[in-house]
TrEMBL record:
Originating organism: Bordetella genomosp. 7
Protein name in UniProt: Glutathione S-transferase
Stretches assigned to the GST C-terminal domain: 86-206
PANTHER family xrefs: DISULFIDE-BOND OXIDOREDUCTASE YFCG, GLUTATHIONE S-TRANSFERASE-RELATED
Gene3D superfamilies: 1.20.1050.10, Glutaredoxin
Record-annotated GST N-terminal domain positions: 1-81
């Protein structure tokens, strides 16, 4: 049976949990990281030398890096669905997954950590403001890409929407001012109508 290590308030773990729920895969979870600890054990280091979450073990295949896990699960258990059969459509999903990891999620970290995990007297206001500005710019970029599209790779829900959706949930849930993003907001509402993210993406953020 698939086993997942991670903590439920990690956006990277949420990507995997949402994917597993979309695929209705039997699985077990073990809470590690953050308040749960456990990342510094030799056993965990053997699975993931980065000592981060998530990690999965699927029948002896141990895998880390959230986007790689999402791709693997989609390809193995839902080829033609979450893993598009059309290579051009799959490339669209892949591109936005990588963009999320290298651009949007990275830009968001100072604002999220500052506003949601740091006591107010200890916050770096300048870093938070810069993070919000950049994150909002990228949100508008995603909004432009979603105009006229139901989902990020076209008319069908794919693995790309899961990864983007988890980070969009974090952006939309932060206590900040955001520009109007009608296409992004409509897409996000479509995502949140699906059963799978319920109970995985929660508010308030932590």
């Amino acid at each position: 049976m698939l086993k997942i290590w991670g903590r439920p308030n990690s956006v990277n773990v949420q990507k995997v949990l949402w994917t597993v729920r979309e695929l209705a895969l039997p699985h077990t979870t073990e809470h590690v990281g953050g308040q749960f600890g456990g990342l510094d054990t030799p056993e965990y280091g053997n699975m993931n030398p980065n000592r981060k979450v998530p990690v999965i073990d699927d029948g002896g295949l141990v895998l880390w890096e959230s986007n790689a896990i999402v791709r693997y699960l989609a390809a193995r258990y839902n080829e033609g669905g979450l893993w598009p059969a059309d290579v051009a459509v799959r490339a669209q999903a892949d591109r936005w997954m990588d963009w999320t990891a290298t651009e949007w999620q990275v830009a968001m970290v100072p604002a999220f950590v500052g506003l949601c995990r740091t006591p107010e007297p200890q916050r770096d206001a300048t870093a938070i403001a810069e993070s919000i500005h950049r994150t909002n710019q990228l949100g508008q970029m995603l909004d432009a890409a979603l105009q006229g599209c139901e989902y990020i790779a076209g008319s069908h829900f794919t693995m790309g929407d899961i990864v983007l959706g988890c980070v969009a949930h974090r952006w939309l849930g932060m206590p900040i001012e955001r520009p109007a993003t009608p296409a992004l907001s409509a897409w996000y509402r479509r995502l949140m109508m699906r059963p799978a993210p319920q109970g995985v993406l929660t508010l308030p953020l932590s």
